[in-house]
């Protein structure tokens, strides 16, 4: 294991997994009372405002935002507005744990997309194996939805997968921001995506007519400020101290966190097949990561 992953960094990684797992939990609460597109807008707007305060004019933020606003619009659409909307629509019918598991396929789609659109991230035998195992896990999860006897409708389970594919495109497109300070990229995409979500919310939901209860309001605040704004800051802190590869391990921690919160507070339960699908996706991600194999090879 990378020596930079000390006890403090592991603690931050576990905390981030809990926070990002909590995003599915908070969304499941809020989406019962707030339409998905309006929930997307409030999440993005509040998170963007929080990051504007955090940056406080540093990093030449507004100059970069002005110069690259078109790129921020594209990134904000495929990394925030579109996938958040897909997940929230799906969560009107499926629980937090299942949505988190399906969305955990993001690294698999990222590898496949990067192989096609980049010249330096081609598929290797290990990547192919990891993708195949993860895709089998996804099929195990959505398979019951193909029959009328499935508890969750197929369309609701497919939406988090489509969101994961959108995140995969965003990861590839986001490479053009590698020389931009990470907080600026986060604040820029959230600012742009909140502007995208605003007219959609106004046209589709008429949000001024909504009357959400207190628990939905608190869930929106937690979703925006804790799971989005603070989550980004924490993620960048981990990347700075332990590298992007180690930070990507959070993908394995998000579904268990969402499942635990759903079981404890929402009364959700996963079927045996859903646990099997989660295990296969997790195993596929471990293969993609490659470090377990390298550790075994060094031990041998």
Automatic annotation (TrEMBL):
Q: What superkingdom does the record give? A: Bacteria
User: Primary place of residence?
Assistant: membrane
Membrane-related topology note: Multi-pass membrane protein
Q: Name one GO cellular component term.
A: membrane
Q: Which residues form the EamA domain?
A: 12-142, 155-287
Which key words tag this protein in UniProt?
Answer: Membrane, Transmembrane, Transmembrane helix
The entry's localization annotation reads: Membrane
TM regions (residue ranges): 7-31, 37-57, 69-90, 96-117, 129-148, 154-174, 186-204, 216-235, 247-265, 271-288
Which InterPro entries does this one have?
AA-Vitamin_Transporters, EamA_dom, EmrE-like
The name on file for this protein is EamA family transporter
What organism, scientifically named, is this protein from? Rhizobium leguminosarum
